[in-house]
Design goal:
This protein is about 30% helix and about 25% strand. It has about 160 residues and is α/β, with parallel strands linked by helices. A hairpin with a 4-residue loop joins strand 6 (about 100) and strand 7 (about 105). It is elongated, with a radius of gyration of 19 Å. It starts with 5 loop residues before the first strand and ends in a 5-residue tail after the last helix.
């Protein structure tokens, strides 16, 4: 068990969310499901929490009711090694009602914010050429999903095309 884990508060979609997330990420799975008993506060038998792992990291999904919702002040960051990986996560997490945002950010169908970030992004934004880094930043600020090839062109001075 890891020392610090993440609890995600849902109205009543904890199990659906855990199943959705574990279907997207490799090395992931549902660990345990607990249900409300007769003493409440939820309806007896209804899912209370779902313990799950994504890429070895522990999460709890809690059906806590409508009192709290997600916002952009907290997001999950997914480090990606290639454009194919960026595309796959982006497509999966925006499916069925997810929403694209700016600069590699999106909200999934449950309203949870994610940052889908290729490893190339910080490398180009912090590269040894300050002017190239500035151009890469300008390019990134115009993107929704991060496009590595466009960032590289901007860094190299071949942008805008």
């Amino acid at each position: 068990m890891q020392k610090i884990s993440t609890c995600l508060w849902f109205d009543d979609q904890a199990e659906d969310a855990a199943n959705f997330y574990t279907s997207i990420f490799k090395n992931s799975g549902i660990q345990d499901i607990s249900r409300y008993g007769d003493t409440g506060p939820g309806e007896p038998g209804r899912v209370m929490t779902v313990q799950f792992q994504l890429e070895g990291r522990e999460f709890t999904a809690l059906n806590g009711g409508p009192a709290f919702t997600f916002n952009e002040s907290v997001s999950m960051v997914v480090d990606c090694s290639s454009q194919d990986e960026v595309d796959a996560y982006w497509d999966a997490l925006t499916a069925d009602g997810g929403q694209e945002s700016q600069c590699g950010w999106l909200k999934d169908k449950f309203g949870l914010s994610w940052q889908i970030i290729p490893n190339a992004l910080p490398e180009l934004l912090n590269g040894p050429d300050p002017e190239g880094a500035r151009r890469a930043m300008e390019a990134m600020l115009q993107m929704r999903k991060i496009d590595i090839a466009t960032l590289q062109k901007a860094y190299d001075g071949d942008w805008p095309a």
